[in-house]
Design goal:
Blueprint lengths: L1 H33 L8 H33 L5 E7 L10 E7 L5 E9 L2 E10 L2 E2 L6 H18 L1
Length: 159
């Protein structure tokens, strides 16, 4: 009976030793992971270095955010939409060999280039476009159609 009395506390003590051993091994491996590649294995220095690196990374992320925002703002002024419309300006001759090319940015500002093909040669015209409208000259129906196609093409790429 005395043997049974000591068996229960000894079992509890043994299980507690196993739990503590596992906890100590996990803590030790975690500490070794933190101090890997460090000559002075002082936990305070390691944590201070980690905080410094964290602050540097935080600053770098802030700089990258500013850079991305600037690129996004500036990107609206680059050619983003392209529309091409082929047509036949002269009903009595040939096929759709003439064309209109609309090159506009995010604000529908840019240029419309027209190439009119005839038997005697090809004539080239360029017109400025601002917010989808001709600046100095009225836009033809084909040029308006090319700008519309550029807008639709840009919208379909987003979805």
């Amino acid at each position: 009976m005395l043997l049974n009395f000591w068996f229960i506390p000894a079992s509890v003590f043994f299980i507690w030793l196993i739990v503590l051993t596992v906890w100590l091994m996990r803590s030790s491996s975690h500490y070794n992971e933190l101090t890997r590649g460090v000559n002075n294995k002082n936990l305070r220095n390691i944590l201070e270095n980690m905080l410094k690196e964290f602050d540097i990374a935080k600053g770098d992320i802030s700089d990258l955010k500013k850079y991305c925002e600037k690129n996004e703002r500036d990107g609206i002024f680059h050619i983003q939409k392209i529309g091409l419309k082929r047509f036949n300006p002269f009903k009595d001759t040939g096929g759709d060999q003439s064309f209109v090319l609309a090159l506009v940015d995010g604000n529908d500002t840019g240029v419309v280039i027209s190439g009119l093909y005839s038997r005697s040669g090809t004539r080239w015209y360029a017109k400025k476009v601002s917010f989808g409208k001709g600046v100095d000259y009225e836009l033809s129906d084909e040029e308006k159609s090319a700008i519309k196609e550029a807008r639709l093409g840009e919208a379909s790429r987003r979805s």
